[in-house]
Structures are given as structure tokens and as C-alpha cells.
Design a protein that fits this description.
CATH superfamily of the largest domain: 2-enoyl-CoA Hydratase, Chain A, domain 1
InterPro entries: AccD/PCCB (IPR051047), AcCoA_carboxyl_beta (IPR034733), ClpP/crotonase-like_dom_sf (IPR029045), COA_CT_C (IPR011763), COA_CT_N (IPR011762)
Largest sheet: 8 strands, mixed
Pfam family, one: Carboxyl_trans
Keywords: Transferase
Protein name: Acetyl-CoA carboxylase, carboxyltransferase component
CATH architecture of the largest domain: Alpha-Beta Complex
Shape: elongated
Number of helices: 14
Number of strands: 21
GO molecular function: propionyl-CoA carboxylase activity; transferase activity
Length: about 475
């Protein structure tokens, strides 16, 4: 049932673009198939409106499925129109936005529709890492369309109207919609399959406009900057109090407290999103141990260990940033890996992928150690050992193999003298588990007061602005 916040296809396009800037392409294209009485049906634009327009001065291409035409189903020419938009966008280096509201394949056209769908997959693959791809789910997005969504860089879903599924809830073994609506926005967001959940069509389209303004147009564009009206030397006196909820810490250091969080409902122990420093878009990844409410009280807590979902969330985000030359910032506070039976099945592979993503990225990379940095989990979180350009630590950060007391207990396990173990624990903390010890060995570039973090980061990224870094000649990695 349609509700007041669900717009028509043309209204969606009008809302998305700057006033009177949309130019339609292929308005007269229609189906070739005449099977099953298709020739007797009018199919305006073959169920998808395609073209280009401007968002805050940025050229953007769009395809928007029209649910009023055969339920927005995809046929041969419908798919060809989408493929053509991709061809144009790749030629000029502009983002593609897909607005999905579709009942799936057009059964009347069968293999022609399948061929067209395959062409869309191919175009998306060729465009990956070259131009930003954004998908908005404003109606049904099922079956093969869910793959199309996952091939995009960023996906949005309307909480009121969007449905995302590979198999519908009623065909999932042992399930039905009333029991668990696996197609609902909340379910899919918590599973990590969408990046942004918004209330309705209008809020989705407004959020996409915001994202477009902070992203570069393509992988060779360096124009993702804005004028900075914030004080470049502004201190952040609350930073230490916000270290546990790093979403607040990232927001506090950013220009005018701007923060656009990505996958907010998934793997909440890892925060990912975009901030601005001196007008520059920065991709931020941070370990989190608490979620604080407006009163500063913890409403959800996590241990400071890497998890499979947290690593997967950060892994994709780092790769997107690297593909589009967006500098990376990490806040590290990690002491190991999550130790459960379930995690043991997957954590090794997930950590390897995140390690690879950080090590393989050639964009400017800055790491700030804000708490614990222990063992190989610390190495994974954008440490200098795998290629971070600059590493800061706040004055009470702990860096080493493990916490000092545990290390002393292991090294002096054959003694019963508790006072000796305590003495050696203090000694170990000073010699092998402090920020100062790491700095003396060159693993930390500077130990900084927590409140001065904003200005230190701005200076670091300004210095790294012209960074160039080569990689061995190879087709691609295998991780």
C-alpha cells in the first residue's frame, strides 16, 4: 500500500537533483518483445527513467525504476538503459545513483531479461573503484537486485517502504514474515547489508545529496573539499571523556562537528564514517567500547577486542577510501581478538582482510592510539608496522604485547613471590608497554595531549597531501 511519504519515480528524481537540472536520456526506449501480449501494453520509458543532473554543482547520473510500469520489472531494454547510463558515467567520471523499486525480472522476456541483468552486473564491476556507485532502496529490492545493491559502494533504504531480500521471508526455511521480516530495513541494517537507514523517500534522497557533496566524483578527482570555517587550532577538551564512544570523539574533532556515520546499526564496536579536517574529507575508523546516550550514560558496552563483523565493516570502508583517494584516520583501542566459538570460525580470515586493506592502501594514513594497543590486533589497526604514515599516541596510551601484569605473571610464573611479580609488572609497563617506550623505538611519531588532537591531525594531513606511494607490479592481490 502506498503511503504519503512514497514518491512517484519522477518526483524522486526531482527531489534528488537541484531544481530543473535533470536531463532525461532514452525517454522513448521501449520493449522489443511482443510475447504474451506485451505489444498491447504501453510501457513508458520501459519502466526506468534514466538521465543526468546536478547535485550541489556535481554532475551525477541516475536510473530510477518506475513501479507503476509492470511493477518496475527489468526487461531487456530496461537493462540496456541502465547499462548505457553506466557507459556515459564512466566516460566522464561521474557517480551513478540507482533508485530501486522493482518486482524483479520481467517474466515475459525471460532470457533477454537475464542477459540484460548480467550486463548491469558487468558494468558495475567495471565501474567499481572508478566512480562512486550509490543505491537507494525505496521499494522492493529482491533476488538478483540484492546483488546489484551489494555491488554498489553505498546503499540506502527507506524504513517505511524499502524491502531488501535475496529470498523472501516466506521462503526462508522455518520462517515467515510475521515471525521475522528478514526483508525489513532494520534486519538488513543490523546484518550489515545496507549503509544508511532513513525514515522515508525524502530523507533517503536528502542523505544521498549530502553524501555526494563529500565524495570525489571519480578515482582521479581531488575535489572533495570544502571551505573550513572552524578554528584550525581549536582544542578538544572533552576528547578524553569521549574515547570510549569514539563516534562522539570523531564528531568533536571534525570541522563544525560534522560526522556522517556509515553502517551505524552494524558491528557497533567499530565506528566508520566521514569527517572533515580543514575542509578535507577524511575516512575514519575507530574501535569503540561504549555507546553513550545524551546524558553521557552507557547504554551498550563492548570489550576492546576485534570481531569478525567489526573487521568486515572496516575492511570495506578502507577499500572504498583508498579507491577514491580519501585519506584514512584510525583511533586504536584494542587488546586482542574476540574469543568465542562462533568468532573462532571466522575471525582469522576477517582480521587478515582488514590487515591487507590497511597495508595495501596508498592514501595518507594516520593512526592515533587512544587506549590499549596490544599484540597483533594492534598491528592490524593501521599501525606503523603495516604502513601508517604518522602514528600519534595520547599520553596514557598503552602499547605492547599485552598488559603489564599478565606479561609479568607469564615471565615469572615459576616464582611464588607476589611482590616480585608486582615489581616486574611496573617495570614491564615502563620498559615495554608504554607510549614512551614505543616512541623511543620509532613506532610512535609523537605523544600528544588529548585536547590538541585536532590541530595535530590537520597538520599531518596537510603534510601528507602530496603523498605518492608505489606498489609491486601485479594484477591484483588475493586477500
Amino acid at each position: 500500500m502506498k503511503i504519503s511519504t512514497q514518491l512517484s519515480a519522477r518526483d524522486r528524481i526531482s527531489t534528488l537533483f537541484d531544481s530543473n537540472s535533470f536531463v532525461e536520456i532514452g525517454a522513448l526506449v521501449t520493449r522489443r518483445s511482443t510475447d504474451f501480449n506485451l505489444s498491447q501494453q504501453e510501457l513508458p520509458a520501459d519502466g526506468v527513467i534514466t538521465g543526468y543532473g546536478v547535485i550541489d554543482g556535481n554532475l551525477v547520473y541516475v536510473y530510477c525504476q518506475d513501479q507503476s510500469v509492470l511493477n518496475g520489472t527489468i526487461g531487456e531494454m530496461h537493462a540496456k538503459k541502465i547499462s548505457h547510463i553506466y557507459d556515459l558515467a564512466l566516460k566522464v567520471g561521474a557517480p551513478v545513483i540507482g533508485i530501486i523499486d522493482c518486482a524483479g525480472f520481467r517474466l515475459h522476456e525471460a532470457t533477454d531479461a537475464l542477459h540484460g541483468f548480467g550486463e548491469i552486473y558487468y558494468k558495475q564491476t567495471m565501474a567499481s573503484g572508478v566512480i562512486p556507485q550509490i543505491t537507494a532502496i525505496l521499494g522492493n529490492c529482491g533476488g538478483g537486485l540484492s546483488v546489484l545493491t551489494s555491488l554498489s559502494d553505498f546503499s540506502f533504504i527507506s524504513q517505511n517502504n524499502g524491502k531488501l531480500f535475496t529470498n523472501s521471508p516466506n521462503v526462508v526455511e522455518g520462517n515467515f514474515t510475521e515471525k521475522c521480516d528478514t526483508a525489513a530495513a532494520k534486519y538488513q541494517a543490523e546484518a550489515g547489508n545496507v549503509d544508511f537507514v532513513c525514515e522515508d523517500d525524502n530523507s533517503v534522497l536528502e542523505k544521498i545529496r549530502e553524501l555526494i557533496t563529500i565524495l570525489p566524483s571519480n578515482n582521479e578527482d581531488d575535489a572533495s573539499y570544502d571551505e573550513c570555517t572552524d578554528d584550525l587550532n581549536r582544542l578538544v577538551p572533552n576528547f578524553k571523556a569521549e574515547i570510549k564512544d569514539t563516534k562522539l570523539a570523531l564528531q568533536d574533532i571534525s570541522d563544525n562537528n560534522y560526522f556522517l556515520e556509515v553502517k551505524a546499526d552494524y558491528a557497533k564496536d567499530m565506528v566508520t564514517g566521514f569527517i572533515r579536517l580543514n575542509g578535507m574529507t577524511i575516512g575514519a575508523i575507530a574501535n569503540r567500547t561504549e555507546i553513550l546516550n545524551g546524558d553521557g550514560k552507557a547504554v551498550e558496552t563492548f570489550d576492546n577486542n576485534l570481531t569478525t563483523s567489526g573487521c568486515s565493516k572496516a575492511d570495506k570502508f578502507v577499500k572504498i577510501c583508498d579507491a577514491f583517494n580519501i585519506p584514512v584516520l584510525t583511533f586504536t583501542n584494542v587488546s586482542g581478538y574476540k574469543a568465542t566459538m562462533g568468532e573462532e570460525r571466522t575471525i582469522g580470515t576477517a582480521v587478515a582482510k582488514l590487515t591487507y586493506a590497511f597495508a595495501n592502501a596508498t592514501v595518507p594514513k594516520v593512526n592515533v592510539i587512544i587506549g590499549k594497543a596490544y599484540g597483533t590486533a594492534y598491528i592490524t589497526m593501521n599501525s606503523k608496522h603495516i604502513g601508517a604514515d604518522i602514528v600519534f599516541a595520547i599520553d596514557d596510551a598503552q602499547i605492547g604485547m599485552m598488559d603489564a601484569k599478565s606479561a609479568a605473571n607469564i615471565m615469572y610464573s615459576d616464582t611464588k613471590d607476589a611482590s616480585l611479580v608486582e615489581e616486574k609488572s611496573v617495570e614491564y609497563a615502563s620498559l615495554q608497554a608504554s607510549a614512551e617506550a614505543a616512541a623511543k623505538r620509532g613506532y610512535v611519531d609523537s605523544i600528544i595531549p588529548a585536547e590538541s588532537i585536532r590541530k595535530h591531525l590537520i597538520y599531518a594531513y596537510e603534510m601528507l597531501f602530496t603523498k605518492r606511494e608505489g606498489r609491486p607490479n601485479k594484477k591484483h592481490g588475493t586477500i
